[in-house]
Amino acid sequence: MKLFIFAITAVLTAFSHANADVAPPVQINGQDLVTHQLNHIEMTSPSVKATVVVFLSAKCPCSGSHEQTLKDLSAKFSAKGFQFVAIHSNVDEDGALASQHFAKASLPFPVIQDDHAALADQFGALKTPHVFVLKQGEIVFQGGVDDSKDSPKAKEHFLLDALNDLDQGKLPQVKLARALGCIIKRKD
User: Is the pTM of this model over 0.85?
Assistant: First the structure.
């Protein structure tokens, strides 16, 4: 019974946290897991159409299935003034394992190590992948990349649609989409 009550409490806490008004950071500072360089990503720069922040995992199959989609979207939209950044927040994933995984994935944007899941907490990120699109520091879309745990099988492409809307000078028609994937592990 205690386990059941704990599980219900955890789900309700996560649900309420995900739906709270999120005040994202105006900048992300951190070390890239692949290059080990310090990065400073400004999310209110007038020269950037929007910033795509995606929380990823080195072990989650759902997260891994979306890496090619994210590479393709970055290739298409980076040239149009969009910036992309990934954040690795899972405290149960060893840094060396994560570095190897993301080096092999060859993402064309930084993958910032989020020690203690501080950025995940600031954004209210719950799963991997969980995407936040910011325009001038305001979240204009959040949720899943698409409607499938296996990205090549997706029928709805939430992130692509949001980026197309923004590229056309409109706010995304869909502002919130269900994020599928593995729970971001935080310290107990």
Answer: yes
